[in-house]
Amino acid sequence: MILVSISLVSVSLFIYQVILNRIYSALFWYHYTFLITSFAIFGLGIGGIIAYNQRQKSEDFKTHSLYKAIFLLSISYIFSLGIIYILPFQNNVLIYLILATLPFIIGGYFFSTVFEQFGKISNKLYFADLIGSGFGSIIVLLSLNNLGIYRTVILICIISVIAWLLLNAQFKKKILLSIGVLAVFLLGLFIPNKYVYSIEQNFIGFITNKTKTLGSIAKSNQKAKIVYTKWNAFSRTDVIKVEGDNDEMIVTIDGTANAPMYRFDGKKSSLSKYKDDIEYLPFSFGNNHKTLIIGPGGGRDILYALAGNSKEITGVEINTSSIDAVRHFKEFNGDIYNRPEVKIYGEDGRNFVRKSKEKYDVILLSLVMTNASQNIGYALSENYLFTVEALQDYMNHLTDNGKLAFLAHDEEDMSKLIATILRQLNKKGIAIKDTPKYMAIFAKEVQLMHGKEHIHYPLIIVKNKPFSQLESKKLKETADKGKIIPLYIPYVNDKGPLYHIKQGHLTLVQFENGFSFSATPATDDKPYFYDFSKGVSPVLVFIFFFILLGSVILFTPIISQEKAFKPSLYFTSLGIGYMLIEIPLIQKFILYLGHPVLAFNYVLAGLLIGSGIGAYFSNAKVFNNLSNRIYLPAILVMAINIGLILSLNLIFKMTSDFSLVSKILIAAILVMIQGFFMGMPFPRGIKILSENKKKSKIIPVMWGLNGAMSVVGSVLSIMLSMEFGFTIAMLAGALLYGLISLQSKNLVIAK
After folding, report:
1. Confidence of residue 372 (pLDDT cuts 50, 70, 90)
2. pTM for this one?
3. Domain 1-210 indexed as CATH 1.20.1250
4. In CA terms, which of 110, 647, 676, 684 is 20 to 30 Å from 592?
5. What is the pLDDT of residue 31?
6. Contact assessment for residue 664 and residue 593, using Cβ atoms and an 8 Å cutoff
7. How far is CA 393 from CA 364, 404, 466, in A?
């Protein structure tokens, strides 16, 4: 029963972590979400310290401490998430951090206590723990997408109460009470849908947050209300209607990524008013028969394609809830997504292009990630839409004289996109000085602020062929008619940095380095397009050093008192090393599987389940008798990881045409092989400590230290990935496992 209970607690804690990230993504900007959740997970280490201190006060093992911890865990879920949900937005990160951390502290206490008391079967305990987390990563995807966020919260309470019930049954304690609590939570699943919808829509912190779209509208003395809400594993999607505006509604993702949805009567004669907008420019010349729109959002870009007489329009939207929202308001938008000319797919645009056999006259990406315009949105988030390799994929799917267009937010986006285009055209064999002939650049607005020009909503059009004089002239005429500002047009508006590149006055490197921000193009190995900082992100540096400092303050006194320096080095290395491999590995599979949620859930599930199986077999002699100085599984982790670094791109290329199910299976098998050996060192260390009476009491501390260092490792992996790429981050993890392999049995227990 104890193993089943551990698995269930692990399932619930993993799902809680994802729910927390989902709720805080709707409440905060991305980097604040990352900050809070990182510190919250650090609560696992605090739980380990509490367990150690309690053990020091009483040498008697009391089983009720375990089932009390599980009961408190289930209550803490509903308490923490409930308070976060009903609390008006507070401009105080500490409040949200404390609320988020509570379940992790309780979970850390439970697990560290279990590993101390049953350390001799640590392989089975770790197996149960990781298997639970692995299945939790799949369950949370299914639950959020099908049950919504309210019922998913109730679900984790039910799961943890079942764990409590099983433990009570084993020790014959308070069985009726646990059954009663379980019945209460089960009833919570059957609340009528209309009440559940009201609960999910009325997220008080979200509604009262003045930094998000709804709050910004209120600050401008306008009245607005949410008329549609849907939560899933990817986002919270809302439709906002502003009072007095009967022609437009706003589709938002996590309260900020705004996409307008226009009133449309379905008649093409009503589209002429859109021909003065900057987004229409790609359709103002040449052939527009087949159009691909990546990120159509509320359907606005479909209208521009229709206005340009496009006959076949394909829209690819990664957030399926946005598609549901547009279809929900079909009477308002003219049922734009169900027109005979239009086909809509709910998947990642880059992945769609890679597997497509079609060629398009126009490919348009318009404000695909709109919160980046705030300069604080997604700098820490990978984005494969705007890499050098992505440009190659798009241009390979253009017709002979096709057009690729990007609507950006500001000068930063524009400059980095131009650098990316220049590099890709150069890779095709076009001389740098000739690349400006393939581009035209416009701006919706240029404002003079503090003595400096600020470019708003620039549009970049790039072709496989140089612009003709006739095309340039046509673009200039359309821009003038719509009061759009030309920044660069070959032949007719030949000026600015591109002019100097054309004249040979400016090299590509000089162009990239000529800005106060980083304009170096993103690549598939380092796909952080919205990271404009020169050097390591200050946010990541802050998180890294504060968690490291917190770990030193929390763990050093006990480590020093117990003279446990060698064990602490071992478990620190494991915590950091595991995450240095796990996070880049998941990120590498995003493009292959076509969606970040799929990669996170299925790849992580494979890795954790593989690690759990490896943990179960970690006591086998074949993995432990090679040498007293070299630990075989850690060496194998290093070797397999280097093998994956060298072979993954080839595997992805060879299986690119496989079905999604086949790709998921391939991904799962690859990471399970890696995970199998990654799961062995931790239970081995716990078992060694449990066999030494003097050292067994520090097991909760080592468990907590390992958890805290996994947070440090996750931050470090992102820092390395952003600065040097995924390959270097994974290589760092491989090298760390190589060092772990040298930490023999004597080193683990030595003073």
Report:
1. very low
2. 0.88
3. yes
4. 676
5. 61
6. yes
7. 13, 11, 19
Model confidence pLDDT, tens digit, residues 237-251: 999 999 989 999 999
Distance CA 293, CA 318 (A): 12
Burial of 641-666, coded b for 16+ CB within 10 Å and e otherwise, reads beebbeebeeebeeeeeeeeeebbeb
Q: Is the pLDDT score of 62 beyond 60?
A: no
Mean pLDDT of 132-154: 93
Helices (H) and strands (E) in the chain, counts: 30, 12
State residue 751's pLDDT score: 45
Q: What is the mean pLDDT of the chain?
A: 88
Structure tokens at 268: 């093409």
- Predicted pLDDT at 659: 87
- pLDDT tier, 378 (very low <50, low <70, confident <90, very high otherwise): very low
Instruction: Note whether 397 and 406 are within 8 A (CB).
Output: no
| pLDDT above 70 (res 283) | yes
Measure the N-to-C terminal CA separation of the chain; round to a whole number of Å. Answer: 36
β-bridge pairing 452-463 and 439-449? antiparallel
Amino acid (1-letter code) at residue 290: K
- How many C-beta atoms surround the C-beta of residue 269 within 10 A? 6
Report the C-alpha gap between 371 and 393 in whole angstroms: 25
State pLDDT tens for residues 658-702. 888 999 999 999 999 999 999 999 998 888 888 877 778 888 999
Task: Select the more confidently predicted residue: 201 or 116.
Answer: 201
Residue type, 598: L
CATH node for 263-513: 3.40.50.150
3-state helix, strand, coil in the chain (%, to 5): 65, 10, 25
Give the span between the Cα atoms of 282 and 408, in whole angstroms.
14
Neighbours of 220 (CB within 10 A): 9
Mean pLDDT of 705-715: 90
Q: Confirm if 9 and 67 have CB atoms less than 8 A apart.
A: no
| Assigned fold of 535-750 | Growth Hormone; Chain: A; (1.20.1250)
pLDDT-derived band at 166, boundaries 50, 70, 90: confident
3-state secondary structure of 453: strand
Mean pLDDT of the region 634-647? 94
Residues of the chain with CATH 1.20.1250: 1-210, 535-750
Evaluate whether 705 touches 45 at the Cβ level (below 8 Å): yes
Helix axes 148-171, 122-146, angle to 10 degrees: 150
Residues of the chain with CATH 3.40.50.150: 263-513
Residue 476's H or E segment, with its range, is helix 469-481
Q: How confident is the model at residue 395 (pLDDT cuts 50, 70, 90)?
A: very high
Instruction: Characterize 126-161 residue by residue with b for buried, 16 or more Cβ atoms within 10 angstroms of its Cβ, and e for exposed.
Output: bbbbbbbbbbbbbbbbebbbebbbbbbbbbbbbbbb
Contact 729, 548 (CB under 8 A): no
> Sign of dihedral through CA atoms 475, 301, 598, 713?
positive
